[in-house]
Design brief:
The complex is a heterodimer of chains A (about 500) and B (about 300). Chain A is α/β, with parallel strands linked by helices and about 500 residues long. Chain A is built from 16 helices and 23 strands. Classes of the chains: A alpha/beta (about 500), B mainly alpha (about 300).
């Protein structure tokens, strides 16, 4: 066990960062020691990303000092941070899709390095840290886990003293995450200092030696995570109690609201996924969860279910017994369906339109447009109702959608689409990038919606979420959808294995 | 058909494709860095008039060509300042550049209209240049032709085999990631745009120094636009660009030959063949998936670093 009282390798002192009148980091202190994994905990918007960007030279602090090995340093750009020995693995990878793995890595290495030497170095680092890499592959063809390995290898080739990882497991299957933990522990044993950013508390308790918890830009606690329960840590992060969502076990399976039969669809995007012979049934009063790692056909499936893309075969999708395979999203809405896509801006909502205008976008058939003219007053009243019902926090009367935080906008979109008359509700990634409290509100609302008799289909990457709200769970992998099983009859490990294709055809 | 006739046709196809190759290879580099510069036509015409003035006043074609390159790069610098550093909309800035270039070139060249220049010197290698059918084409061209092919080869090598070329492709693929890796996105883009401007200027210089030895306003006649389409047609690959330029050059010559032979199609329609071919090629490309796949992912987007 390394000495806890040694001089920290990196010391952030009283870091403050302001964007205009908004304070993202307020007087934050943080110490990183050799041979330790330090966790940075906090909700979305707590200031984790800002702090890390300051540590990596991407942002300049408004005030405060950074000490590296005891000496104050000023980092003007990432190059300076790297020269000091600070490496970073980003949550949204900083990779180049149209370059090969080797080219992505070559970008940070000296220009003089020959191709043979480059391949040799990649092989050596892969061997040493169990990072399987295929240097000649194009990045766009790789899974999230493979991409992360490139990022980590690229960092390690520069032999960093400090390694920062921003929510590294958010895109990984449980099995891939276990592989990552082995690598991280090895790096720790080599005496490097690691900063591990996450909001997955069990993971942090298992992996990290120390934790700094941020809330609203301030440090609320520095502690040893193993000494606290996940629930205690969560309360420190959020500041209030989080209600747990408990789905009531459905007594009976309701009528079938949507049936997908042998749906196959080629992608319309260059690097898209082909849907292969999809079979799916959604029943009234039930939540059907669709698990899967990002990029396995979720958005393609959503587009097919919503009618944004038509398969060309009317008999591939039925709603309430009617063949709707050739009917577009408006026709399906008219039959009592609602849809929430993954991307909030540009798909679910328009950032530069006001909330009431965003209501009109998908509800124009419900009396908000008369003879081609907008009924603004009715739209505003409806927007106000949604804001009230779903506790949407906003500034101003009818603000632009982009001024809302992710969680509040998602609540608003959910409220816009939800109604008591809904027969079918399809939601893609309902709580992606949403803070814990809003996520809990939305999950509660999903379960309530099913309890009121709606058939709900939820596509999500978050296994915890799916197990919390689903009655039935299936897995999408490379465009194949597995048969749905009762959520109570399976577990995380089994679903995780299917997410990697490990149980294909079983 | 006689050897002379075939040689003459092939020669005219080649020479009419040279300005397209020159302008397009420069634009290709700019676009691979993620910058869409619609000002090619404007930079080209300014290159044409500057080259003519330079060559006429000094009597040196070399100085003329240098003036053309400089004029193109100067206009590109204005564009770069606006589109890269001030993050002005690239389409608007590029269109403005074309309109400005067409106007200012007419003003600068006013007193040079109607003057004539002696032609650029041609390579002549005994024996080789006299080989039937291809001798004149391979070994008897003006120096611009060789410069154009050397540029294509150089750009291909540079993009694919050098570290700097890799950095440029990275910037065009994802400027945010490039910035986090410590690349100077804006500087790399500026150099790419300046190179593009220099090439467009050289393409213009070719028109007044070698293709037609005089200056007349608007003489680029839409070649800058064809060059822009060519980059898309070539899927941003240097060698396909040569192929495309030869096809468009061929279309130009074909319509001239057809007019000369008295084909009973209105001459206006025939003159529009190269442009129609451009539109057709672009439609075919946007329908096919492969065409879109190669587009630099951050093409046309301004990069603003937050600090």
């Amino acid at each position: 066990m390394p000495d806890d009282f040694s001089e920290p390798l990196v010391r952030l002192q009283a870091i403050t960062k302001r964007f205009g009148s908004f304070t993202a980091n307020d007087n934050v202190d943080l110490e990183l020691r050799k041979g330790h994994i330090h966790a940075l905990l906090g909700e979305n918007g707590a200031g984790k990303s800002t702090l890390v960007k300051i540590l990596y030279g991407l942002l300049a602090p408004t005030s405060g000092t950074i000490l590296f090995a005891g000496t104050p340093v000023t980092m003007t750009d990432p190059r300076a941070a790297r020269a000091l020995g600070i490496g970073m693995v980003f949550q949204h990878f900083s990779l180049f899709e149209n370059l090969t793995v080797a080219e992505n890595i070559a970008l940070v290495l000296p220009a003089s390095l020959s191709r043979a030497a480059l391949y040799e170095q990649i092989a050596a680092i892969g061997e040493r840290y169990h990072l399987r890499l295929e240097p000649a592959r194009m990045v766009w063809s790789l899974s999230a886990g493979e991409r992360q390995r490139i990022e980590i290898a690229r960092c390690l080739l520069q032999d960093p003293q400090v390694l920062v990882l921003d929510e590294p497991t958010s895109v990984l299957t449980p099995q891939e995450a276990d592989g990552l933990f082995i690598t991280l522990n090895q790096l720790k044993d080599e005496g490097r200092a690691l900063l591990y950013i996450s909001h997955k508390l069990e993971e942090v308790r298992y992996l990290c030696d120390h934790a700094t918890i941020l809330r609203l830009g301030r440090v609320v606690e520095t502690c040893v995570p193993k000494d606290h329960s996940a629930r205690e840590l969560a309360q420190l992060m959020v500041g209030t109690q989080i209600a747990e969502v408990k789905p009531q076990v459905s007594q009976h399976v309701g009528e079938m609201r949507m049936a997908v039969k042998g749906l196959s669809l080629a992608p319309d995007q260059t690097h898209g996924v082909t849907l292969k012979n999809i079979e799916l049934q959604a029943h009234a009063g039930q939540v059907l969860g669709i698990a899967g790692i990002a990029g396995n056909g979720q958005s393609e499936l959503f587009a097919a279910l919503s009618g944004e893309r038509l398969s060309g075969n009317a008999q591939s999708i039925f709603m309430d017994g009617k063949a709707v395979g050739n009917r577009d999203i408006n026709a399906r809405r008219a039959l009592g369906a609602a849809f929430i896509p993954e991307a909030r801006f540009g798909h679910a909502a328009v950032g530069d339109l006001t909330l009431s205008e965003n209501v009109i976008l998908s509800q124009h058939a419900h009396g908000l447009v008369k003879a081609g003219f907008l009924r603004r007053r009715a739209a505003r009243a409806q927007a106000a109702r949604i804001v009230e019902d779903y506790d949407v926090r906003k500034t101003g009367d009818d603000p632009l959608a982009r001024t809302l935080s992710g969680g509040n906008l998602q609540k608003f979109i959910f409220g816009r689409e939800n109604s008591s008359k809904l027969r079918l509700f399809v939601i893609d990634q309902p709580t992606w990038g949403v803070d814990a409290r809003a996520a809990s509100t939305i999950r509660r609302a999903i379960v309530d919606c099913a309890a009121a008799g709606t058939a709900v289909v939820v596509i999500s990457q978050d296994l915890d979420e799916l197990f919390e709200i689903s009655d039935q769970i299936c897995v999408i992998h490379e465009g194949h959808l597995s048969a749905a099983v009762p959520a109570s009859g399976t577990n995380r490990a089994e679903i995780g294995l299917q997410m990697t294709g490990g149980m294909n055809g079983v | 058909m006689t050897s002379e006739f075939v040689q003459a046709v092939l020669l005219t196809i080649l020479t009419s494709s040279i300005p397209l190759i020159l302008a397009a290879i420069g634009e290709l580099v700019a676009e691979r860095a993620g910058v869409l510069n619609l000002g090619v036509e404007g930079m080209m015409i300014c290159g044409a008039v500057s080259a003519f003035i330079g060559a006429y006043d000094t009597g040196s074609a070399l100085i003329g060509a240098a003036c053309g390159i400089l004029a193109g790069a100067l206009l590109a610098a204005v564009f770069g300042l606006l589109a890269i550093y001030l993050a002005v909309n690239q389409v608007a800035a590029g269109l403005a550049l074309t309109i400005f270039g067409l106007g200012i070139s007419g003003l600068i060249g006013k007193s040079y209209v109607g003057l004539k220049l002696t032609n650029a010197s041609h390579l002549h290698l005994p024996w080789l240049s006299d080989i039937p059918y291809v001798g004149q084409i391979l070994f008897g061209e003006d120096y611009f032709v060789y410069a154009a092919f050397a540029l294509v080869l150089g750009v291909w090598l540079w993009l694919n085999k050098t570290h700097a070329g890799l950095q440029l492709r990275a910037v065009g693929d994802n400027h945010t990631s490039a910035n986090t890796l410590g690349l100077d996105v804006q500087a790399i883009r500026l150099w790419a745009v300046l190179f593009g401007g220099g090439c467009a200027g050289l393409a213009g210089a070719y028109l007044t120094l070698a293709y037609t030895p005089f200056w007349s306003p608007g003489m680029t006649a839409g070649r800058g636009w064809i060059a822009l389409a060519l980059v898309v047609f070539a899927s941003w690959q240097p060698w396909r660009l040569v192929l495309g330029a030869l096809i468009f050059g061929g279309a130009t010559i074909l319509q001239l030959q057809a007019q000369a032979l008295g084909v009973r199609i209105p001459s206006q329609l025939l003159s529009s063949v190269p442009y129609l071919a451009t539109i057709l090629a672009l439609i075919l490309l946007s329908v096919s998936k492969r065409g879109k796949a190669n587009a630099p992912a951050s093409l046309g987007q301004a990069f603003i670093a937050d600090k």
